[in-house]
Amino acid sequence: MTNTVTDKEILLAFIKNATQKVQELNGVATVLLKEGARPELFDAIARSTSAIKSFASTCHQNHISDFITSKLDSEFDHIRLQNLSITEEIKKNVKENITVLKDLIKNVLKEESPQETEVSKEDDDTFHSLLTSIGQLSVWSFHELMNALAKVHGYTEMLEDINQQIPDTTPQLKSDLKTIQEKLIYNTSHMTGIINRIRSLRGKTKINIKEHNIRDVIKNIQDLTQQPPKSLNWSSLHIPSVNVQFDQIIFEQIWVHLWKLLGEWQIPGTLVQSMCFGKIDLNKSTNNPKFKNNLTIYIWLEPNGTVKFDPTTLQYSTQTPQPDLAYVFHYTSKIAKRISAEVNCAKTAYNGVIFSITIPCGDINLSVSESTGNQIPQPLHILKMKQQDKAVKNVLILDDEKDLRTILSLKINKMGYAVSVAENIAEANKILDSKHIDLIISDLFLGQESGLDLLKTLSINAPKIPFIFITGASEDDISKPILDILAKYSKAFLTKPIATQLLKETLDKIIPL
């Protein structure tokens, strides 16, 4: 962290974020005033106003929060609870209040130019606002939902520690606890998969291209969504360890859609085995030296007893041999192009279907065997970690949710770090005054405070302490100006629930033991 975050920079981010949310609010309100009260419209309005109020409070713009609560929220609650017909007076009040809200936001920094703060006018005769707003907003608060799921996920992991403390003289109790843990793990994974499905189908308008290891991505998708089913043993998943560059949520949609289609087109009553095979070829259509190859992944359901065959020898096309549900395949092919991928289909000798996904990739990741000195493709090689005595690294966790602080601290402590926790910025400052801290993990939104407040102070007083921000909100729910600040002044930004492996990899990268 080499720069200092300023009040003005945070307020500029608030203005841009709030302006975007007001546009969404105006679009949904316009449709509500035209078509009447509908539950999904009130949900979208509440999500939009809550987002503005939350960030307004963290930026100490309480007059804006108070105005939304007293004027807009009360007006929409009155319409919803009384199931009122939309009169001209109601239309006038809502439009006037939204206009006042726009002015309040513009005046946060009076010196800002109109081009930076002016809210663009919506066309009252189009439904584009509705489609955009409802698409970007979920029916319920993802922030609250993901926080709740993070707690369940964390306590489920803690059951393993409890199980180890139960004496072997009570085998039935240990067995019952293990059964409960397995059911919780399955259901939390299933819930996370459902949430990701909803999130990915919320009218995703921004593509987030990042570099990923394809094996890690697919294993994570399989764990979350059970696609492919667990009958596909991960250890036999024949996918080389290579890096690819794509939007993970879009790839997840492609992967899940294709496995679902294979299940739909499965021959009834046939016992099958999930199959997957990856092949690397030279990518002749690119000049990018980092992604000079193409990875093609073949997936299919193979009936038991079928003679083995080479999937690479089949004839593939963009047309599916199955006419039913073909629109799903064509939709999947279309979204694949958004991440420079290509999806094709072929028919097998046993009248089954096989899909191929082709995407640019790098070279196979290799590591060196300690015993022979030969290069071995990852992840077949298991590196023997040498334990060394090193100074303890101290991590400070700042989160207003007690359960989440507890879960996160237990995870990090088990990784070998010393952990301190704080509920608010005042407690965090006391800890910082009393001991050396190597890393701060802070929730973005802390009730009436924000992790940005602490970041702003420490960027002046202790600029060398790295920050990781966490939140229950999706990246799609946080505007680009805020994400720009997080990218500029913090080392990482993680969404809840945080997978233990991702957390470990992030800590290893920032403050390795």
UniProtKB/TrEMBL annotation:
<feature type="modified residue" description="4-aspartylphosphate">
    <location>
        <position position="443"/>
    </location>
</feature>
<feature type="domain" description="Response regulatory">
    <location>
        <begin position="394"/>
        <end position="511"/>
    </location>
</feature>
<protein>
    <submittedName>
        <fullName>Response regulator</fullName>
    </submittedName>
</protein>
<dbReference type="InterPro" id="IPR001789">
    <property type="entry name" value="Sig_transdc_resp-reg_receiver"/>
</dbReference>
<dbReference type="InterPro" id="IPR036641">
    <property type="entry name" value="HPT_dom_sf"/>
</dbReference>
<dbReference type="InterPro" id="IPR050595">
    <property type="entry name" value="Bact_response_regulator"/>
</dbReference>
<dbReference type="Pfam" id="PF00072">
    <property type="entry name" value="Response_reg"/>
</dbReference>
<dbReference type="InterPro" id="IPR011006">
    <property type="entry name" value="CheY-like_superfamily"/>
</dbReference>
<dbReference type="GO" id="GO:0000160">
    <property type="term" value="P:phosphorelay signal transduction system"/>
</dbReference>
<keyword id="KW-0597">Phosphoprotein</keyword>
